Inverse folding.
């Protein structure tokens, strides 16, 4: 008997959550062949699985390695579903864009990558500048792509002042109201965020998503 | 010898090992990334020359009277010998920009002969630096080498994030890489041990922050154990350090058989003492950033005091150290304060009243 939409959505979600990055494409094809909407497959299937994985990470049941493989599964599924997404979908919907990177002098990028994955899961269009990123590049990229949000990551106390500089550059260019700045990483705190006049701080990748949505006014 | 000490570091370490009387507690702050600052040169100058690497360590010892000089083979040596590319910053620690292995299918193309001292100028340079330290100061103070453990060695060949994924997706290939790295490291360690150098094995990518316990047991423990056995067969000595939170794996780390265990400041010294203090000496764990870099003189005194209070009665002995390598942004005077505090609170016989008095921080 053919599977119901709910069953197939559950299957997509489970593939991501249970790290079955090789079976997810089959599950996605099965879902499309059954004639169900791709958008639901993404949001109620793949993204749901990734959110469950994120929850487990927060509870320290899942580790970094697990989240990385879950995200591979999500992206594999997306590749199948994307071509089936309705084209006019973006026509009047707002495209939330965000620039992310690790500030100059710091090469720790594992945490930043997790934040990027979770932001993409949440529907942000993410421009990842990588690690050890010259400070001016954040501002330039944000201007170029018209981003609403800049996400700065660092794990080192020595490179923290770079975050302040980015905020100041935005102020100087009078972009501070237009582009929000979210910061995070080991030594960062809410107190530091307030001190440098950034717009928000989150302690982990899950918190980062909630905060990012808030900052850009995403429903 | 430092003017306020009564024994040389060699004499102190010998007494420690034999359980004899010492003038003060042993102190081994990890003065690697900061050493060029003490010598008044740039990081690039230090890493370009065996003489200057050695001199930076000697300058640290002359100033602080710490108990171990540490030459840096580092975390990336195996990868760079094989072809991983590093950047070349003027005055900070280099990082890998391009890993030599991008696809696990290409493992066979790696030529591990390149990691031998004849073929790797960096390795040869650090050996020369060790020889200089031994020749000039060997009578007085031991020298160690800060060198990668097996898992971090793999991360210098293959990008860390892909390595972490592959522990789930392609464990067989990761075991192959670990096999190759372990064999290469055996030959590398041997050269240092033959020169009388203590192996300070650091494996930050095996951190409890990144790997779960079962992964440590599968991917790190067997190889680390093999390396420890090898070190002991050659008559060498090993201090084992993993960065970050290793609370859940301390037992397993000690099972690998190191001679000493160094712990990060994210781990509670009291807990580690309870778990493994009966089995080996413990080093730790003055916070390098929150205390040594950002703290005041009195914060540093307080932290040293707390460490000594927690560690002093560890059954197999306690050595005060920093929780991790001390970065170049730590003010050099702060290490003076740390050693001053060690000489105040760590002088034998330990003055319990002084140690327990809350108002003695200066
Ligand atoms: C792995 C590691 C490395 C690896 C990095 C590999 C890589 N590709 O990233 C290697 C070995 C290369 C490395 C090198 C160094 N390291 Co290191 N490293 C670590 C270690 C063990 C784990 C870091 C990690 O990946 N954690 C896991 C991730 C998932 O967590 P996370 O990054 O914190 O991210 C989470 C949150 O912070 C948050 N988040 C992160 N970014 C953002 C951004 C935003 C916008 C938001 C909202 C949230 C957010 O969400 C993430 C997911 O939940 C830590 C120890 C520790 N206690 O953290 C030291 C540590 C970070 N390293 C440290 C140091 C000093 C160094 C070196 C300078 C070595 C030295 N001693 O000289 C070099 C740096 C070279 C350079 N210039 O960059 C120090 C930093 C001290 C400080 N506070 O300044 C630490 C804390 C170790 C210590 N105890 O001293 N390191």
């Amino acid at each position: 008997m053919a599977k119901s939409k709910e069953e197939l959505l559950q299957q997509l979600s489970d593939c991501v959550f249970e790290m079955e990055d090789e079976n997810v494409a089959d599950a996605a094809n099965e879902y499309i062949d059954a004639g169900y909407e791709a958008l639901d497959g993404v949001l109620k299937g793949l993204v749901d699985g990734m959110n469950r994985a994120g929850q487990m990470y927060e509870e320290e049941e899942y580790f970094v390695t697990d989240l990385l493989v879950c995200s591979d599964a999500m992206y594999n599924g997306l590749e199948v579903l994307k071509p089936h997404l309705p084209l006019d979908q973006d026509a009047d919907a707002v495209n939330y864009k965000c620039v992310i990177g690790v500030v100059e002098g710091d090469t720790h990028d594992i945490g930043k990558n997790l934040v990027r994955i979770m932001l993409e899961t949440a529907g942000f269009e993410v421009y990842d500048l990588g690690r050890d990123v010259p400070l001016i590049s954040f501002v330039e990229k944000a201007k170029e792509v018209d981003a609403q949000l800049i996400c700065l990551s660092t794990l080192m106390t020595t490179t923290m002042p770079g975050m302040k500089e980015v905020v100041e550059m935005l102020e100087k260019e009078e972009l501070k109201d237009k582009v929000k700045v979210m910061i995070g990483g080991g030594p960062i705190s809410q107190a530091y965020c307030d001190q440098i006049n950034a717009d928000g701080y989150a302690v982990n990748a899950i918190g980062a998503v909630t905060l990012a949505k808030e900052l850009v006014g995403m429903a | 010898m430092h003017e306020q000490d009564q024994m040389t570091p060699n004499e102190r370490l010998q007494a420690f090992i034999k359980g004899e009387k010492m003038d003060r507690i042993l102190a081994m702050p990890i003065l690697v990334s900061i050493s060029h600052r003490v010598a008044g040169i740039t990081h690039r100058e230090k890493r370009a020359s065996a003489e200057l690497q050695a001199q930076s360590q000697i300058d640290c010892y002359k100033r602080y009277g710490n108990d171990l000089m540490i030459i840096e083979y580092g975390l990336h040596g195996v990868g760079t010998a094989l072809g991983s590319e590093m950047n070349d910053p003027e005055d900070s620690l280099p990082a890998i920009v391009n890993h030599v292995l991008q696809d696990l299918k290409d493992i066979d193309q790696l030529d591990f002969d390149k990691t031998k001292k004849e073929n790797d100028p960096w390795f040869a340079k650090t050996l020369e630096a060790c020889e200089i330290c031994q020749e000039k100061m060997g009578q007085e103070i031991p020298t160690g080498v800060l060198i990668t453990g097996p898992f971090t060695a793999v991360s210098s060949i293959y990008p860390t994030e892909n390595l972490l994924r592959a522990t789930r997706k392609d464990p067989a290939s990761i075991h192959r890489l670990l096999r190759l790295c372990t064999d290469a490291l055996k030959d590398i360690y041997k050269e240092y041990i033959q020169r009388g150098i203590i192996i300070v094995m650091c494996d930050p990518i095996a951190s409890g922050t990144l790997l779960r316990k079962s992964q440590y047991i599968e991917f790190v423990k067997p190889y680390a154990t093999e390396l420890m056995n090898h070190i002991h067969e050659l008559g060498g000595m090993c201090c084992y350090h993993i960065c970050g939170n290793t609370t859940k794996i301390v037992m397993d780390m000690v099972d690998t058989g190191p001679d000493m265990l160094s712990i990060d400041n994210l781990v509670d010294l009291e807990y580690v003492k309870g778990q493994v203090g009966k089995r080996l000496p413990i080093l730790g764990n003055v916070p390098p950033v929150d205390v040594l870099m950002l703290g005041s003189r009195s914060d540093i005194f307080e932290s040293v005091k707390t460490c000594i209070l927690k560690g002093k009665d560890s059954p197999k002995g306690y050595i005060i150290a920093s929780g991790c390598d001390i970065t170049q942004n730590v003010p050099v005077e702060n290490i003076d304060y740390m050693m001053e505090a060690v000489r105040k609170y760590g002088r034998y016989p330990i003055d319990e009243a002084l140690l327990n008095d809350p108002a003695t921080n200066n």
Notes: The two ends of chain A are 38 Å apart (CA to CA). Chain A touches chain B through 19 residues (CB under 8 Å).
